[in-house]
């Protein structure tokens, strides 16, 4: 209710271009401060999370994306132009937010952070967009969860840096166009398939982040242990890396857990034995599967003959949101080859049966 009203005011006054207009816009932006998280108003995020790499060189892995980004950023800097819009997709914890932070630092510009579900109405979006300064970066996490009506307002903003807002209704309805400062939109999504094609086509750079291999995660862990002042050898780092589901966030979390474990054991030495004991407590197996991964595979095998079964049915059976299964668990199980997607639903593969120590059922053809 509140923001559309403010947006109406912004539009009215920016159209008249009067002194009052600027006062009103300033006041409006003041209110918006509480609504968006801006690096102007908030502490530097890199201080909150010292493990977050702050330059492309520090960012481990994702070589192709890094090389393309270096060219993309370099060229826009040479032309003194704001960077084109960027879409990062991939499972959670792979570094999408980190890359957005790195880009803002490299471009030496301000980063404004928000998420798709927070922007409920076009007025909310208008408030954010009108507060952006020339060259600012707007980072929208979970961009696939943007309201469809909001999404449509984003198109002209991305393409021509204008915002077309409809004021009033009925015979008084009129369209007002507000000119925006040139900004860069960085969208992050865990479900790239849910991004509409008009939206996708408006991004100039599309970066799909893949799971990291063990060597890359080993590097992430060694870097983090250095920052946390932990003495960790290569072998232990690799052992942790193998259990980290190809994900730097999980690798760092496991490392922090091992730090806690060691600290509580009044022991300062981290060796393979300690690492294994600490990880055993988390019930993470050698392939990096955690409780929930194992529950999904076991439920599919024991209750649904290994599938095919729909993701919603799996969700109900294990009391987990279908969207969480799709975004967090399923991609890793598919990547490991334990699960496959078919037009009729999800199926456990022979490898999945073997890993869970279950007998592979005979196929119909083999029974005849
Ligand atoms: P996402 O936005 O994809 O969910 P984040 O960017 O928040 O993931 O990354 C999670 C954490 O993992 C970060 O705090 C950072 O410490 C670490 N991280 C991510 N990618 C890398 C990388 N390539 N190198 C080192 N650390 C990384």
At a glance:
The protein has 368 residues and is an alpha/beta fold. Helix content is 50%, strand content 12%.
CATH superfamily of the largest domain: P-loop containing nucleotide triphosphate hydrolases
Any low-confidence stretches, pLDDT <50, length ≥5?
Answer: 1-7, 13-17, 22-48
Work out the count of structural domains: 3
Helical residue percent?
Answer: 40-55%
> Mean pLDDT, as a whole number?
85
**Largest sheet strand order:** 1-3-4-7-2-8
CATH architecture of the largest domain: 3-Layer(aba) Sandwich
Give the CATH class of the largest domain.
Alpha Beta
Per the principal axes of the C-alpha atoms, what is the gross shape?
Answer: globular
| Distinct small-molecule ligands in the complex | adenosine-5'-diphosphate
Q: How would a crystallographer describe the biggest sheet? A: 6 strands, mixed
The CATH topology assignment of the largest domain is Rossmann fold
Provide an overview of this structure.
This protein has 3 domains: 61-208, P-loop containing nucleotide triphosphate hydrolases (Rossmann fold), CATH 3.40.50; 214-280, Helicase, Ruva Protein, domain 3, CATH 1.10.8; 291-362, Arc Repressor Mutant, subunit A (Orthogonal Bundle). The protein is globular, with a radius of gyration of 24 Å. Strand 3 (111-115), helix 6 (122-131) and strand 4 (137-141) form a beta-alpha-beta unit. The chain is an alpha/beta fold. The strands form 3 sheets. It has a 6-stranded mixed beta sheet with strand order 1-3-4-7-2-8, covered by helices on one side. A two-stranded antiparallel sheet has the order 5-6. It is 50% helix and 12% strand. Residues 1-7, 13-17 and 22-48 have low confidence and may be disordered. The structure holds adenosine-5'-diphosphate. Adenosine-5'-diphosphate binds next to helix 5 and helix 11.
């Amino acid at each position: 209710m509140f923001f559309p009203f403010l947006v109406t005011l912004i539009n009215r006054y920016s159209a008249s271009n009067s002194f009052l207009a600027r006062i009103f816009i300033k006041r409006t932006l003041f209110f918006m401060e509480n609504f968006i998280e801006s690096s102007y108003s908030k502490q530097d995020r890199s201080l909150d999370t010292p493990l977050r790499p702050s330059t492309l060189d520090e960012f481990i892995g994702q070589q192709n994306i890094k090389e393309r980004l270096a060219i993309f950023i370099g060229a826009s800097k040479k032309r003194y132009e704001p960077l084109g819009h960027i879409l990062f997709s991939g499972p959670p914890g792979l570094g999408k937010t980190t890359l957005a932070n790195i880009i803002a630092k490299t471009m030496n510009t301000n980063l404004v952070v928000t998420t798709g579900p927070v922007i409920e109405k076009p007025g909310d979006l208008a408030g954010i967009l009108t507060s952006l300064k020339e060259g600012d970066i707007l980072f929208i996490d979970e961009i696939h969860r943007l309201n469809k009506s909001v999404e449509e307002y984003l198109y002209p903003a991305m393409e021509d840096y204008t915002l077309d807002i409809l004021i009033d209704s009925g015979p008084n309805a009129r369209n007002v166009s507000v000119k925006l400062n040139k900004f860069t939109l960085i969208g992050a999504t865990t479900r790239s398939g849910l991004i509409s094609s008009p939206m996708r086509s408006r991004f100039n750079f599309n970066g799909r982040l893949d799971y990291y291999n063990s060597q890359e995660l080993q590097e992430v862990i060694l870097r983090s242990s250095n920052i946390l002042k932990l003495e960790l050898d290569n072998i232990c780092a690799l052992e942790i890396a193998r259990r980290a589901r190809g994900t730097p966030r999980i690798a760092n979390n496991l490392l922090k857990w091992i730090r806690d474990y060691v600290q509580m054991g009044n022991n300062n030495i981290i060796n393979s034995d300690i690492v294994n004991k600490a990880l055993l407590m988390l019930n993470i197996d050698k392939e990096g599967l955690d409780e929930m991964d194992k529950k999904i595979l076991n439920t599919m095998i024991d209750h649904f003959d290994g599938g095919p079964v729909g993701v919603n049915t799996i969700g109900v059976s294990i009391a987990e949101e279908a969207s969480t299964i799709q975004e967090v668990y399923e991609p890793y199980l598919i990547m490991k080859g334990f699960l496959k997607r078919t037009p009729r639903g999800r199926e456990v593969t022979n490898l999945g049966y073997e890993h869970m120590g279950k007998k592979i059922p005979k196929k119909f053809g083999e029974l005849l």
